[in-house]
């Protein structure tokens, strides 16, 4: 409709202009000055008017396109005043601006919704420009994983955490891959995946990092329950033949009691049977005690205690049992440092770790055990450090498995029980070891 109105108005002006030019031609042909000068004056006026008419509409459109160029969709074009075709044009402009504003609001709402989701998920996400390193997006989860404040460029990570920078930003992971990140005072197992995508002429890399240590601990706890259930079943299966053998022996003895004259009792068979029952019973008793130790720890009774007090108790208890040649040192630089723990259980963990450290140091020239405590941001860490023989790297992932032991006389229960106790405290137990140099085991509360 607006184009028809514009067309007819323009056609009318052109028609009048042709009439004025015809008047000029008539004045020239018949020497009529009135027609000549009158037509010339009208032609000039009409040309100027036509120029203004056309230019004004182009200016309006140019003004609208300028606002689109700079994404200024807040502007409002007047619809109540001016020529009818311009008012119609303004209505079209306003409708376009309104549509863009609606689209922008929807996009902003979607962006805020996505932003909140990405901030709330327990998965670290970072996207950055591959060439410049400028960060497009980073959420709090990955900042917590890397133990860093918010940053605008990944070069900040390179300066502060070069090892993490190499593991996350320089290494390409085609598929999900488990990676151990070395932080300031601990290591953390994470699952990493990344991808590269193009936006116009820029390349961006998206990295997704998931902390899987808590999940592994939870799965391990469930595995414990299943393991205990299975092993209890195995114990019952072992008791069945003992019961059957006991019943046979009892039957033999009963026959002898019933017929003392004619029934001969084979004492060698009875002795062998009783000996088998005795040996098997002793084995099952030891087996049952071991599993009872694992199964009985199901809850904690926490109380607040100063670390210095905990260290004094452990020192008084352990020092007499350690060899004089082993140097033992407790270090706590903060006398006011406290823990909210089940004291008896954590004492059991520390005793076990110190005894393991003692066994690892026995053959060293200058055996030393150091127990330290320090505050790390929102956590407290107690470390048991020795300069013993260390643990081979291929065994580090298996030392917490129940009944696995590197010692000939070990039961494989100590570290498994220690880890379960730390999990009940909502804490972690981590180990760093180098074969031939020593081992450091950290309890993180």
Strand and helix layout:
Elements: H1 2-30, H2 33-69, H3 84-120, E1 124-129, E2 135-138, H4 140-146, H5 155-160, H6 162-170, E3 177-182, E4 187-199, E5 202-211, H7 213-258, H8 267-295, E6 303-306, H9 307-318, E7 327-332, E8 338-341, H10 343-361, E9 368-376, E10 379-386, H11 414-424, E11 428-434, E12 438-444
Domain Histidine kinase: 230-445
InterPro entries: HATPase_C_sf, HATPase_dom, His_kinase_dom, Sig_transdc_His_kin-like_C
Protein name: histidine kinase
Q: What does this molecule look like?
A:
This protein is an alpha+beta fold. It folds into four domains: 2-107, no CATH class; 121-211, PAS domain (Beta-Lactamase, 2-Layer Sandwich); 216-295; 303-444, Heat Shock Protein 90 (2-Layer Sandwich). The chain is built from eleven helices and twelve strands. Helix 1 (2-30) runs antiparallel to helix 3 (84-120). It is elongated and about 170 Å long. The model has no long low-confidence stretch (mean pLDDT 78). Its EC number is 2.7.13.3. The chain crosses the membrane at residues 7-28, 34-54. Keywords: ATP-binding, Kinase, Membrane, Nucleotide-binding, Transferase, Transmembrane, Transmembrane helix, Two-component regulatory system. InterPro entries: HATPase_C_sf, HATPase_dom, His_kinase_dom, Sig_transdc_His_kin-like_C. GO terms for molecular function: kinase activity.
